[in-house]
Every structure is written in structure tokens, then in C-alpha cells.
Design a protein that fits this description.
Layout: E1 2-5, E2 21-32, E3 39-53, H1 59-70, E4 76-82, E5 85-95, E6 100-108, H2 117-131, E7 136-142, H3 146-154, E8 158-163, H4 171-174, E9 178-184
Parallel strand pairs: 6-7
Antiparallel strand pairs: 1-4, 2-3, 4-5, 5-6, 7-9, 8-9
């Protein structure tokens, strides 16, 4: 297994990494109170049926990946290769206005999960952020992606906030609100 920076000739092959999300549970988000006295409660719950979602790179992620890999934008793009097969991808970009490195995407091919690749990528991103003098690494997951939330928590990220309208005005109703994660580097 080799972890290395993504090169321009790798870009088309990265779309073949199977980033399918599979989970029988989710994080239920409940709101209480009003105005400045609002509070949120997260509770792990079982889904009615197992969730299997394809989790493909969206247009913005593809564009950012291409910009980082070709050097048009700053960022970190790493891939893991096993016997010439691309099996994992990490994409992150600095947010100098906040002093942070923002994790944009982390995916491990379905057949190569549970081998420590995602953890290795996160620790590489954290190390890179420290070396560049950033104060934190940030990430975002959805409440219905419990495997990602577990990974971030295991790797030292703290849940820093909730956004119930980032994707639509009905995220909370759809049980797909955004969770904002943060690992401080100081």
C-alpha cells in the first residue's frame, strides 16, 4: 500500500473509488427551546432499513480536486494505491481567513475499509496542518453518516456545531442535518 500525492493523470481513476456509505444507524438530532435559549440533543438510533448510499464526488468536489492537483489552488490531495488500484482519497483545503485546514472529502474504497487508511489520512492531514501553522482541522458530516462521525470522533475531532439548514430549509425534518467537527492543534 502506498500513500502519495494525487497527480493530474490520476484524476479520472479517482471516480472509481467506491465511497458507498452503509449504516444501520444514524444520529437523531432534536431541538429544544427558542431564540438564544435553544439546545440540541444528538442520540444514536436505528434506521428503519439499512442505508446504502453511493456517495459520489459532486461537481464542486471534482472541481476543487482538479484545482488542487493541477496547482491552481492550494490544498492537500492524497491517494492510496494497492497494486496499481486507487483505493482511497483525501482532499483538504486551507482556509487562511480562519487559520484552519478544511477536510473536503475522505473516501476509502468499499473493499479496503477497516484497515486504517482513513485514520492514516486524517493523521496525515493533521500533521500537514500543524506544519503549516494552522490552529485546527475542520470537517463536516451529515447526521445520517454515522460511520464518518465515529471515525472523526475516534481520531480526536470534537463536535463543534450543528447546521440544520446548510443543505436545505428542511434538513432537520429529513434527518440529514450537518454536523461540524473540529480538532484543535494547539
Amino acid at each position: 500500500m502506498e500513500i502519495r500525492p494525487v497527480r493530474p493523470e490520476d484524476l479520472d481513476d479517482l471516480l472509481d473509488i467506491d465511497g458507498t456509505i452503509e449504516s444501520s444507524e444514524y444520529l437523531h438530532l432534536e431541538r429544544a427551546g427558542e431564540g438564544l435559549a435553544v439546545s440540541w440533543k444528538l442520540e444514536q438510533r436505528t434506521l428503519r432499513e439499512k442505508r446504502i448510499a453511493p456517495n459520489r464526488l459532486d461537481g464542486d468536489q471534482k472541481f476543487t480536486l482538479r484545482q488542487v492537483v493541477t496547482g491552481a489552488d492550494e490544498g492537500l490531495a492524497l491517494l492510496a494505491e494497492h497494486e496499481s488500484q486507487k483505493v482511497a482519497l483525501l482532499l483538504a483545503q486551507p482556509q487562511p481567513q480562519h487559520g484552519t485546514l478544511r477536510l473536503i472529502d475522505l473516501r476509502v474504497d468499499y473493499g479496503f475499509r477497516r484497515q486504517g487508511l482513513a485514520s492514516a489520512f486524517l493523521f496525515h492531514a493533521i500533521t500537514e496542518a500543524r506544519e503549516k501553522g494552522f490552529r485546527a482541522v475542520t470537517a463536516e458530516t451529515l447526521t445520517d453518516n454515522l460511520p464518518a462521525a465515529r471515525l472523526l470522533s475516534k481520531c480526536g475531532f470534537d463536535l463543534a456545531g450543528v447546521d440544520t439548514q446548510r443543505r436545505s430549509n428542511h434538513d432537520l425534518v429529513k434527518e440529514a442535518a450537518s454536523l461540524l467537527w473540529y480538532v484543535a492543534l494547539d
